[in-house]
Structure to design on (279 residues):
């Protein structure tokens, strides 16, 4: 069956970033040499979601450096991304299992093996060292950008400080496994460590809803990160998939519960009862 959406953007060549300075392929840590927080930005959690890789490629080409603390830039599921085929783009979401369902200690420390588990075990020290983490995603259906905050109030606060996108989604996690943004201290309300997950819109659209552009030097949603929340006040537009309930927040509006429809990511990755964003 043909894909519903054409491939309007080109996957970036990230081969130049394989050899970093951390001893782990495709992971780079930029140290300012000054005291400060440790921030991690991850792209390619799913191999067919490469708008985040476009953003990281832009940061590297612009030679961005932190003014304080450390900045870690990581390309996650490289093996799945390497399999990306424009004729059949969806199967490259992952190799053996969803990389974003394996972040519980019991899974990472257990005997089970998969391509995604091996990669998660490699990146685990960087995730656990991050004070702040931003996980870059996109969706299979056309939609406005949203920030997934899990059920963490501190993630809501961080999203508001970032200022983009205007739409925040609070959910209850995913029944198929622990996501990276819910790992350890990220899910502890008493800890200042915070993680959030951004959905930039449809995977391969050149110009998506809400004004972002995947084909620009950097997706517009990232470039406008200092814009105030609430400039776009409408709730997230529904996509296709199983219905779920989530809490929605936008600046200047009261919190309310609304139905959100999860995007379809292919038969292998659609367990029953998935969360609102499908991530």
């Amino acid at each position: 069956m043909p894909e519903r959406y054409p491939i309007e953007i080109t996957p970036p060549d990230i081969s130049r970033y394989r050899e970093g300075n951390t001893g782990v392929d495709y992971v780079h840590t930029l140290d300012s040499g000054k005291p400060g927080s440790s921030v991690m930005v991850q792209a390619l959690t799913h191999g067919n979601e490469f708008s985040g890789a476009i953003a990281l490629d832009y940061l590297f080409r612009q030679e961005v450096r932190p003014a304080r603390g450390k900045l870690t830039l990581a390309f996650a599921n490289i093996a799945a991304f390497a399999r990306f085929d424009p004729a059949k783009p969806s199967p490259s979401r992952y190799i053996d299992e969803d990389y974003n369902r394996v972040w519980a200690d019991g899974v990472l420390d257990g005997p089970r093996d998969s391509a995604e588990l091996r990669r998660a075990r490699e990146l685990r020290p960087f995730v656990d060292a991050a004070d702040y983490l931003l996980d870059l995603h996109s969706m299979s259906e056309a939609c406005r950008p949203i920030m997934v905050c899990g059920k963490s109030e501190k993630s809501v606060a961080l999203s508001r400080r970032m200022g983009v996108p205007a739409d925040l989604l609070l959910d209850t996690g995913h029944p198929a496994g622990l996501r990276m943004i819910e790992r350890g201290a990220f899910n502890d309300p008493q800890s200042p460590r915070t993680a959030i997950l951004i959905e930039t819109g449809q995977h391969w659209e050149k110009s998506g809803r809400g004004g972002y552009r995947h084909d620009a030097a950097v997706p517009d949603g990232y470039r406008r990160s200092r814009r105030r929340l609430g400039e776009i006040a409408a709730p997230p537009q529904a996509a296709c998939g199983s219905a779920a309930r989530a809490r929605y927040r936008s600046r200047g509006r009261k919190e309310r519960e609304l139905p959100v429809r999860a995007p379809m990511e292919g038969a292998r990755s659609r367990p029953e009862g998935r969360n609102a964003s499908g991530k």
Residues 214-276 have pLDDT under 50 and may be disordered. Helices lie at 51-61, 78-82, 105-108, 115-129, 153-162, 220-223. The beta strands are 27-31, 38-43, 70-75, 132-139, 146-150, 167-170, 194-202, 243-249, 256-261.
